Amino acid sequence: MRLLDLLALVGENIGRRKGRVALTAIGVVIGTAAVVVLVSLGIGLQRNATQQLGGISDLTLINVSPTYGEVFYGGGGGGVAVAGASSSTPQQTLITDQSLEEIAALPGVVGVYPRDYLQGGATLKYGRLENYPGILGVTQAELQDLELPIDQGTSELERGTTVVGSYIPQGFYNPYQRPSEAPVVPPDLFGESVNMILFRYSSEGVETRRTIQLRVVGVLGETRGESDYSMYVLLSELEGYNQWMTGRRVNRHRDGYPMALVKARDSSVVLDLADQITAMGYQASTPLSFVQGINSFFAILQVIFGGVGAIALLVAAIGIANTMTMAILERTREIGLMKALGATNGSVLGLFLGEAAGIGFIGGVGGVALGWAAGQAINVLAMAYLAGQVAQTGGMPPTVAVYTPPWLPVFALVFATLIGVVSGLYPALRAATMIPVVALKYE
Q1: For residue 217, which of 133, 161, 167 has the smallest C-alpha distance?
Q2: Is the CB of residue 311 less than 8 Å from the CB of residue 93?
Q3: Phi/psi-derived region of residue 96, left when phi > 0, alpha when psi is between -120 and 50, beta in every other case
Q4: Whose CA is closest to 216, among 109, 126, 332?
Q5: Closest residue by Cα to residue 168 from 210, 135, 213
Q6: Which end of the chain is less enclosed by CB atoms within 10 A, N or C?
Q7: Cα–Cα distance measured from residue 413 to residue 360, given in angstroms and rounded to the nearest whole number
Q8: Distance CA 57, CA 51 (A)
Q9: What is the C-alpha separation between 133 and 230, in angstroms, rounded?
Q10: Is 223:268 a contact under the CB 8 Å cutoff?
């Protein structure tokens, strides 16, 4: 029997029992729709979570800090003895200028930037207003290469200047404000001079203050990351502030840098670079590792969701098997006549498998359509609800709640058709192995 003749006969037989086929296909529709909706929901949640994290962090950055190794012992205490290491002496790996050169030489690294923070207390004053921002010392190259968004001014630092994050103006308050006074309006700092008051304490507890005037040359745009709450000054100037506060000269060969920022070529090499930097003896962390953990979690979630939908398809498979078994009982004499006229076992097997696959295919098409429509409805309702929550609590608005990738409808359709084939395999084998004489005598 030719393939076209077989397909035509399959279509004719399915059309003769429209009601039974429709009722059987409904189970497949429900199962396929459940698979599409639940897997799409898992994928949508994953995309939303990764996009939210990607929106607040540059996934090509690696934070590097010095590390202390294990405590080594020279005897049988269970520790590991290292040549040149004294007993119970922690091993430290400093971030020095040589370290920066070694990290910069790694394949895939496009920039290495040393950083320092203020090693003491400081108050930022603007008129009567005060603030306590995080103060970071950076190189000029870092602000340029990281391409942080600029709302006002420039990111080019000079001596006596500062670039502030977008939330710094909102952090100012009036320490002398009376209850009856209006709330403080965030000041426009661009082009203004602010006073940074450093203070230190002697061993006797005597406080000493030092006032430094800085001109705000740039205000960064909102990133929902570290830069929003940071105040940047030149690293060389911050070293001077720390020298005054600690009372000793900064020696990078002896003390190293407290941190460094590494920028990778793209996110595909970040995790490998982080492993290499860790192998060099430093601590390396990157937001991409959190994304990887999120992806692993949601991959498991998608499998669970898909399994729930597959249970519904399993129930539908039992329905297909029952329908095909009843069809064979009703068409036993027809099968005997076909075989008496020369139909082979393979032709009969193909006919009934084709009918079972047709039921699965019809249910798969309906399930894909229903699943896609349900996903769009959930999207509309969920996005409206989440947009209202974001408006009340702040944060980045979600981009999608349910996302159906192009491969999922194709997979669901093929899977539903295969379910039909597998479900019809046993009835089809029974039909193919019937003895024509016995089948023709069947009442």
Answers
A1: 161
A2: no
A3: beta
A4: 126
A5: 135
A6: C
A7: 8
A8: 10
A9: 6
A10: no
Give the strand pairing for 161-164 and 230-234: antiparallel
Q: What angle do CA 205, 208, 211 make, to 5 degrees?
A: 155
Give the distance, in angstroms, between the CA of residue 357 and the centroid of all CA atoms in the same chain: 38
158: left (phi over 0), alpha (psi -120 to 50) or beta: beta
Q: Is the pTM of this model over 0.85?
A: no
> Where do the structural domains in the chain lie, given as residue ranges?
3-57+293-440, 61-71+87-285
**Residue 22 to residue 42: CA distance in whole angstroms:** 30
DSSP SS3 for 117: strand
Which residue type, as a one-letter code, is found at position 345?
N
285: three-class secondary structure by DSSP:
strand
Q: Per residue of the chain (443 residues), what is the pLDDT tens digit?
A: 576 766 777 777 777 777 878 888 888 898 889 888 888 888 887 777 766 665 555 778 888 988 865 433 333 333 333 333 444 444 578 888 888 999 999 999 988 999 998 888 889 999 889 999 889 999 888 888 887 889 999 888 989 999 999 999 999 999 888 888 888 889 999 999 999 999 888 888 788 889 999 999 999 988 877 888 899 999 999 999 988 888 888 888 888 888 999 998 887 788 888 889 988 888 888 877 777 777 777 788 888 888 887 888 888 888 888 888 877 777 777 777 777 877 777 778 888 888 888 888 999 999 999 999 998 888 888 777 766 665 555 555 566 778 888 898 999 899 889 988 888 888 888 887 877 776 666 65
Tokens of 23: 């009722």
